[in-house]
Write a structure and sequence with these properties.
The protein has 15 helices and eleven strands. By secondary structure, the chain is α/β, with parallel strands linked by helices. It has three domains: 139 residues, NAD(P)-binding Rossmann-like Domain (Rossmann fold); 146 residues, no CATH class; 69 residues, Orthogonal Bundle (Rna Polymerase Sigma Factor, Chain: A).
């Protein structure tokens, strides 16, 4: 039986993970759960799965203690997530926390030799240079990187010419990006049901730009051999091209249950269909070359990898804060492109020596973004 630590149990990745674990109680046991805001849902999860350890912010401690009465230990505070990441007798950590907050616990777990099913882009995009020595212990949970992981693990990597990340193109693939775009339109993804942040990133294709950077660090592929192709149906999640011109691809319906289950059962596979559906009746599979002028973050991704220093961190932080301001309705959708490009073109990039550098740069970039829009 695998013992699982689940970081971000109340988010979309966490809830999907628990659905699978609940279906296979003979194979998985929950050791740890964490939540930052949805404490009521965490309380319900604790009552069902009985974890030995939990994490909540300090202002939620008393409420949790008064609500759940069995014997368990609570982590909290600045170092709580790091302590939780280093727990013994854990077979797999599922990292479903979004944002830069995942970086320190990811690094702490990797240093202890833990296996991580990673659904957090920021820890690799911002911390890739510092954690790349531990990539062998990461099972990616992004649908595209999970797909590539499965393909590359079953072939001779030296025979691969290119890898292809597929992208749906988001809600504005066939629409002009202008001042008339409504907030509601940005959050209506045509295929995927995701959180607000990643939905906005899909609309700008920042999500795919971050995935280019992830692929570079996870698989050690030259950036010139990492390609992006628009595939609106989101049935093919990645492809690899061999030197002889043959392509291999991985197909499934667009649902995060598939990559999550692959990571949970790895190196085996789930014994039955995780979702009772099929792609057989989906007969149309389209492919298009992305418009790099319309979606300039793709260019930034390649540039940040090739030129190095703190560029991937700056891009990630600028996008993060710009999307945050958009979701608060402080800026328009088109402003995200303008602000991120301005930050990227004017920032004084520097070499990253340690994690303190990363967080200092991250905070400085976010402050610069707020200054551009007049926010304190």
């Amino acid at each position: 039986m695998k013992k699982i630590s689940l970081f971000g149990s109340t988010g979309s990745i966490g809830k999907s993970t628990l659905k699978i674990i609940e279906k296979y109680p003979e194979k998985f046991a929950i050791k740890f759960l964490s939540a930052f805001s949805n404490i009521e849902l965490l309380i319900n999860q604790m009552k069902k799965f009985k974890p030995e350890f939990v994490f909540v912010p300090e202002d939620k401690l008393e409420h949790l203690k008064n609500s759940v009465k069995y014997d368990y230990k609570i982590f909290s505070g600045e170092n709580g997530l790091i302590e939780a990441a280093e727990l013994d007798n854990v077979d797999l950590i599922v990292m479903g926390i979004s944002g830069i907050a995942a970086l320190k616990p990811v690094y702490a777990a990797l240093k202890k030799g833990k296996k991580i099913a990673l659904a957090n882009k920021e820890s690799i995009v911002s911390g890739g240079e510092l954690i790349k020595a531990y990539m062998r212990n990461i099972i990616p949970v992004d649908s595209e990187h999970s797909s590539l992981y499965q393909l590359i693990n079953n072939t001779d990597k030296s025979k691969i010419r290119n890898i292809y990340l597929t992208a749906s193109g988001g809600p504005f693939l066939n629409k002009k990006i202008d001042e008339n775009i409504r907030y509601e339109d940005v959050l209506k993804h045509p295929i995927w049901n995701m959180g607000k942040k990643i939905t906005v990133d899909s609309a700008t294709m920042a999500n795919k730009a971050l995935e280019i950077i992830e692929a570079f660090y996870i698989f050690g592929i030259n950036p010139d051999n990492i390609k992006v192709i628009i595939h609106p149906q989101s049935i093919i999640h990645s492809m690899i091209e061999f030197y002889d011109g043959v392509f291999f691809s991985q197909l499934s319906n667009p649902d995060m249950m598939y990559p999550i289950s692959y990571a949970l059962f790895y190196p085996e596979r789930a014994p039955e269909r995780i979702i009772d559906n099929t792609i057989i009746n989906n007969t149309v599979l389209e492919f298009k070359i992305p418009d790099f002028k319309k979606f300039p973050f793709l260019n930034i991704a390649y540039d940040s990898i090739k030129k190095g220093k703190s560029r991937t961190i700056v891009f990630n932080a600028a996008n993060d804060e710009s999307v945050n301001l958009f979701l608060k309705k402080k800026i328009d959708f088109k402003d995200i492109f303008i602000i991120v490009n301005k930050i990227y073109e004017t920032f004084n990039f520097e070499k990253v020596e340690n994690f303190d550098n990363i967080f200092e740069i991250y905070d400085r970039v976010k402050e610069n973004v707020r200054k551009i829009v007049g926010e304190k």
